[in-house]
Each structure stands twice: as structure tokens, then as C-alpha cells.
Amino acid sequence: MAMSIQSNSTLAVQAAVLHRGGKEVLHGVDITVQPGQVTALVGANGAGKSSLVMAIAGDLPLTSGHVTLGAMDLRGMRPERVRSQGIAVVPEGHRVLGDLSVMDNLKVAASLLPLREVSDAIEEMLAIFPELESKLQASGRSLSGGQKQMVCIAQALLARPRILVIDELSLGLAPTVVKRLADVILDVAGKGVGVLLIEQFTSLALSMSKQAHVMVRGQIAWSGASTELSAHPEILHSSYLT
Questions:
Q1: Residue 224 in this model has a pLDDT that exceeds 60
Q2: What are phi and psi of 19, to 5 degrees?
Q3: Rounded alpha-carbon distances, angstroms, from residue 11 to 36, 69, 78
Q4: Helix 145-158 crosses helix 102-109 at what angle (to 10 degrees)?
Q5: What's the pTM?
Q6: Is it the case that residue 22 has pLDDT exceeding 70?
Q7: How many CB atoms sit inside 10 A of residue 100's CB?
Q8: Which secondary structure element, helix H or strand E, spans residue 169, and what is its range?
């Protein structure tokens, strides 16, 4: 899929505060995702990572703060509008439409494209994930976890995103499948797409990323180069014990 770095494709979350169920779960979060590189967001369960993903996607409204893509403020936009502006999310849990075939899952995801481009765009996804070729008429629910994650990533890429947000890439998947998916994500970033990778498997996240953020109890406790975080495991250790 044709992708190129755009100067206005930086994702910035600024002073983000979010309430869920009357409780404040994000407390002034600031992160930046640059085009053409992977940025990791790591932290323990319950740190607020998925809440941040939902805020970026437009699924949860921020109480205050901003989410911007280049010069455009996305705060208050509905999820379909956020997606049309260039942010695609691969949610946690390999969520495909179980009653639909793989082909129909892909067609639904390609609905933002001009009709004349849909067939070629799906062919491009099948070139990335040839494992899905033999499964096009199979139902989404019949797929393995790895195959579902391939469909989810393909669905996100069909939106031709400037920013790709992936919540728990490796969750429940075999190491060989994770390596396969990681290679795809690195290739996507190499073509200019900014990637925000949310992972509990920190060694994977840091090996794939250039920059990293550590989230603790709804706040960013540390930000910097992934190599620095890898060299100082005590930073991660303290965050998981906090």
C-alpha cells in the first residue's frame, strides 16, 4: 500500500484528562507519535493505556486536553471521523466481525475508499498477509487468534492511516506469529506511518520502537529513547510495582 511521510502527520496528546464512570483515569497525559517510527507505550494492567487508546480513537470524550494530528484538533470527533482523518486503531482482543466472512470484514473496513479502489486495496492486504487467501470465505469467528489479528491489522491499513494505534499486538499469540506481525508493523512504519504500540510485553515493544512512554496510574511516568529504557530496567520495574 502506498504510504509516504507527511509533515503534518504527528499525533500529539496534550494534557489529556479523562473520566470513566465518574472516576478520573487519565491525569494530564502528554505523548507524541512521529510519522515513520514506532513509539511504545508500556505499563502494568490498569495503568490507563487502553483508556488513552479509546480517547485517541474518539470512543471516549476527553474531559480536558487535546488530541491533534498535525494542525487538526480531533477532540470531540466521532470515531468514524477520526478514522477518516488518518488514525486507525487495532483494538485489544483481535476483534473481527464473527458472523461475516474474512472478505466481508475487509470490504467493511474498505468502505472509506472510493469504490474503484477497494478491490486493489484488498489485494494489497492479501499480499501482506497471504495466510488469509485460503480463509476469505471463512467466518471471522472460525479463525485462529493470529489470523484474527492479521485481519484486524489489514482492516486498519485499509483506512490508509497516517497513524496506526495497536493495543496489545502480541496478546495471546505464539512467538512465531508475533514475529510475523512485528515485521509487518516495522515495514509499515518504514513507509512513513507513525505507529503507537501499546504492549505489556515490554521487550518486544522496546525492540520495535524508537521512543517510549511508561504509564503509571493514568500518568506518563517516563518518556525517552527506547534504548535508554532498555538499558535501565529499574525504571520499568518501579513502574510495575507502583
A1: yes
A2: -110, 140
A3: 12, 5, 17
A4: 30
A5: 0.91
A6: yes
A7: 15
A8: none
